[in-house]
Design brief:
952 residues; 30 strands; 5-stranded parallel sheet; alpha/beta; elongated; 35 helices
Length: 952
């Protein structure tokens, strides 16, 4: 047959598997599960008589030769992190471990996919199924006092299969479809199929699908019956001549699914692709209700392959249902043969296996377990061995079929075709499911947007609900990065930023490569000599307030400029670059010079540029441009100012952001202001460590600035300032001359006030949309002041009351003061105004010229500190000019405790069991009716349990 007759686009849009999590016998996670599969481990446990007697197994059963004392145990089913999910201890105790572990795995699966459910913008659905709650039947119902104290409603909600999916949706705030699936053994694979259909019909954009089966008590055997479904020794020998059945174990698994197109667009890590899936039912064309059907199985496999548009001979592995029964195994192979041999005569090309040989039949979780095994095989390009196969079932002729049982771990080689596989799961009652998979597309990862330069440094962020969990998360990440040095550090940073929920205990670090990250993470923060790398935990007592902590932008004044300010940002940050370029272009007609040649000169022009930066008509526009561009960058990252304060020329940046000036008008005024000042006679300015009241000035001097309670600046003629400096230094005061060319904010400015006011009258002034502090008054500027040209004349001449402005801002102690400009001058002034034990945080954006740090490194540390303090960052905008990918990283380190209701022996069953205890307070009639139904259901379930015990 012609392969190209089949090959082509699948009938339905492919579905990407982007995340997964699970717990299986002998494996606490998916990685351990894969190692066990590769090592050929059978995770069987043998039980001693003492263990079985402790679980209430009678001695007569233990002495019966047909009683099999083995099973497949899931570790720590009594452990759970209740506080993480906001559950009280009693609520956790009465909740079925199936629900509890499935909830933790759902969180892990989403984190494995790189998604924080709180921040996911699309609709996320849940499709899941669980087994009958034997925890309810064995442990809870036997505790009569517990039932009477709590009532049946909370117990029913905590244990009924109906509430598995909706509990996940509620706890994780997922607002897509939330659907329980129960089709016996095929439950979890039917859930996967249903999730695919939900995605294809756009009922959701992301889906969790899977199943769980945990039987309580775990340590119990069963009675073997010849020709029954149960194995004589608890081993599953799929397709072998000695196959005598299977046994039921405990486990769970979840996959995270998205439409392939969306997954590719969003940079998701794709493990494999579902190209087709189908479900059906056998109907009545079989010997009994519990019997399998060749026709039903063949049809569902053929339909899934047709949807995938795959030629059967391109499928080189089938994860079978493989229960190891003498009846079921031959029927399954005949169904497969019917599908494959109708399209190809090729023999022995398709491997088959059954994960049940490793972990037993996991009941409602069987299908998802087989699917996860196959996903891992595709990912690692290896097919694990199917255990215990020696000689084929006499009813199966493998030599004349397309199939062979894979008995060793082998490389999965193909002849130029993508690796493809099928997964089957068939339920008692006849609901069949089959999924067709293809290996993930080979993509170039870590691509950047055209023309964008990648940042040299990356910001890693970690958070947890407790300090101890944060330490564990830190250690886990360090170990993972050490184990995987090939990882792209930018993708690591991106995944931590967008793919993890933010909690109160936080840690961040800025690093340049994986080795730096491993070294920094491995060192306890309090022992680390480089305090700039690793920041200690910051706890917020009210997490809901942490994201709303207000930020104030502080814009620097003249004197802080230096050559090549923020040069690295100009080279790498497109938002910053665009703002600089726009401003410089607008100023060329007014200055007759392109300020970019001054900001970022060539090596030949560095000396000339340094001299130009000392000229007021150049300095003031340059500072405005840098601060405006930096503000635009901060705001694009989601750091939005609740208020602002500027220092002299810096107030023009604040007013521009507030909307008082348009950008073009602000640039014209700043250029005009600088030009007018440049025309004045030279002057001097002196920083004096005295308060306003302590300074005595001559008529030739003016109080120009009050920077801090005991730090002022005096301005005036050079002669007068020299005399003052000499006099003060003779008294022992350490005064410092400022690097300015003129006596700003002094009487020497008087000649240009009216000409400048005339220029301001030419522009349209608007009411401020963001509050900012006035230098003139030291308090909040009013609309009348901001829109009055005379105010801007006063602003040019009068004292800059910066300390008063900071004092006004500090009336709200939770404010974060962020200096937006070169160096740390304003940050130093602001800290001088702080009182002890203040909550106020003061940060700088750009390095001091003496700091030997990268510009981007310094800025990222400031961003990290803002995040530590509770500021929400818009990571999508942070990466607007890069294409980053989500990658699997260690998931949240749950801090589990034991929550368990012990079995009370014996439980008394009588007609009183179904009555509602009159001493229990009922909220309303509706709740009483629900409780009555729950009580009746529990009685029926209890009777069912007795039947199960009788017949194994």
């Amino acid at each position: 047959m012609q392969i190209d007759k089949w090959e082509g686009e699948s009938v339905l849009e492919p579905i990407a598997i982007i995340g997964m999590a699970g717990r299986f016998p002998g494996a606490k996670n998916v990685d351990e599960f894969w190692r066990n599969l590769c090592d050929g481990v059978e995770s069987i446990s043998s039980f001693s008589d003492e263990e079985l007697m402790d679980e209430g197994i009678e001695g007569s059963s233990l002495n019966d030769s047909n009683y099999v004392k083995a099973g497949f145990v899931l570790d720590d089913i009594d452990m759970f992190d209740a506080s993480f999910f906001g559950m009280l201890a009693k609520e956790a105790e009465i909740t079925d471990p199936q629900h509890r572990l499935f909830l933790e795995c759902a969180w892990e699966a989403l984190e494995n996919a790189g998604y924080d459910p709180e921040r996911y913008a699309g609709l996320a659905g849940v499709y899941a199924g669980a087994n009958l709650s034997t925890y309810l039947l064995n442990n809870i119902i036997s505790n009569r006092d517990l039932l009477q104290s709590l009532g049946y409603l909370p117990i029913g909600i905590g244990n009924n299969q109906d509430f598995l999916a909706t509990r996940i949706s509620y706890k994780l705030n997922l607002q897509g479809p939330s659907i329980n699936v129960n089709t016996a053994c095929s439950t979890s694979l039917v859930a996967v199929h249903s999730a695919c259909r939900g995605l294809l019909s756009y009922e959701c954009d992301l889906a969790l699908a899977g199943g769980v089966s945990i039987q309580v008590p775990q340590k119990q055997g069963y009675f073997y019956q010849e020709s029954g479904i149960f194995s004589p020794d608890a081993r599953t020998r799929a397709f072998d001549a000695k196959a005598g059945g299977t046994t039921f174990g405990n486990g769970l698994g979840i996959v995270v699914l998205k439409r392939l197109e969306d997954a590719l667009a969003d940079g998701d890590r794709i493990y494999a692709v579902i190209k087709g899936s189908a479900i059906n039912n056998d109907g009545s064309a079989k010997v009994s209700y519990t019997a399998p059907s060749v026709s039903g199985q063949a049809k569902v496999i053929a339909q899934a392959q047709a949807i995938a548009h795959f030629a059967p001979e391109t499928i080189t592995y089938i994860e079978t249902h493989g229960t190891g029964t003498s009846l079921g195994d031959p029927i399954e192979i005949r169904a497969l043969q019917e599908v494959f041999e109708s399209q190809t005569k090729k023999k022995g090309f398709c491997a088959i296996g059954s994960v049940k040989t490793n972990v037993s039949h996991l009941n409602t979780a069987a299908g998802i377990t087989g699917l996860i095994k196959t996903i891992l095989a595709l990912k690692h390009q290896k097919i694990p061995a199917s255990l215990h196969f020696e000689k084929p079932n006499p009813e199966i002729d493998f030599s004349n079929s397309p199939f062979y049982v894979n008995t060793t771990l082998r490389e999965w080689k193909t002849e130029g075709m993508p690796r493809r596989a099928g997964v089957s799961s068939f339920g008692i009652g006849g609901t069949n499911a089959h999924v067709v998979l293809e290996e993930a597309p080979n993509l170039e990862r870590g691509r950047k947007v055209a023309g964008e330069k990648e940042r040299k440094y990356q910001l890693l962020v970690l958070s947890a609900k407790t300090s101890s969990a944060l330490e564990t998360a830190t250690a886990n990440l360090a170990a993972h990065l050490k184990q995987h040095p090939e990882l792209n550090l930018a993708d690591v940073a991106y995944t931590l930023q967008v793919g993890r929920k933010v909690f109160d205990y936080r840690r961040m670090l800025v690093c340049q490569n994986i080795d730096d990250a491993v070294q920094a993470l491995a060192i306890k923060s309090e022992e680390n000599g480089n305090k700039k790398i690793l920041i200690t935990d910051i706890s917020h007592s009210h997490h809901e307030e942490s994201g709303n902590r207000p930020v104030v932008f502080m814009f620097s004044g003249q004197g802080v400029q230096y050559a090549n300010m923020a040069q690295e940002l100009y080279q790498t940050e497109s938002t910053f670059t665009r703002a600089i370029d726009d401003c410089c272009e607008l100023l060329i007609p007014h200055l007759g010079i392109d300020l970019r040649t001054v900001l970022y000169p060539s090596e030949v022009g560095e000396e000339e540029a340094a001299q130009q930066l000392k000229q007021t008509y150049i300095t003031q526009p340059v500072l405005f441009i840098i601060e405006y561009a930096l503000a635009q960058l901060w705001m694009s990252w989601g750091v939005l100012p609740e208020a602002a304060i500027g220092h002299s020329i810096g107030e023009y940046v604040a007013a521009t952001l507030a909307g008082v000036f348009s950008l073009e008008d602000a640039l014209i005024l700043v250029a005009t202001r600088g030009r007018l000042m440049q025309q004045l006679p030279p002057g001097a300015m002196l920083a004096v460590p005295l308060s306003e009241k302590e300074i005595e000035l001559s008529e030739e001097l003016s109080l120009a600035v009050i920077n801090a309670p005991s730090l002022c600046v005096v301005s005036g003629s050079i002669k007068a300032v020299d005399e003052l400096q000499k006099r003060l230094m003779e008294t022992g005061l350490d005064c410092r001359r400022l690097h300015t060319s003129h006596a700003f904010h002094s009487d020497m400015m008087e000649p240009i006030i009216e000409p400048f006011i005339a220029e301001v009258r030419k522009v349209k002034l608007k009411a401020p949309q963001i509050p900012f502090i006035s230098n003139v008054t030291g308090t909040w500027i009013t609309e009348m002041e901001a829109t009055d040209p005379n105010y801007w004349g006063k602003h040019l001449r009068q004292t800059v009351r910066f300390a008063d402005g900071i004092a006004e801002l500090l009336k709200e102690p939770k404010r974060i003061l962020l200096e937006v400009g070169p160096g740390r001058t304003l940050s130093t002034f602001a800290r001088d105004c702080l009182e002890e034990n203040t909550q106020t945080i003061v940060l700088s954006s750009l390095r001091h010229p003496k700091d030997r740090l990268s510009d981007i490194e310094f800025l990222l540390k400031a961003l990290g500190r803002l995040w530590l303090a509770g500021v929400s960052v818009n990571w999508s905008e942070f990466y607007r000019h890069e294409r980053r990918d989500r990658i699997p990283l260690p998931t949240y380190p749950f801090e589990r405790k034991r929550y368990w209701i012990e079995h009370s022996n014996p439980a008394v069953h009588d007609n009183k069991f179904t009555e509602i205890d009159n001493t229990i307070e009922e909220e309303n009639v509706a709740d009483r009716e629900i409780e009555e139904i729950m009580a009746q259901q529990m009685e029926i379930m209890s009777q069912q349990l007795e039947i199960l015990r009788m017949y194994g």
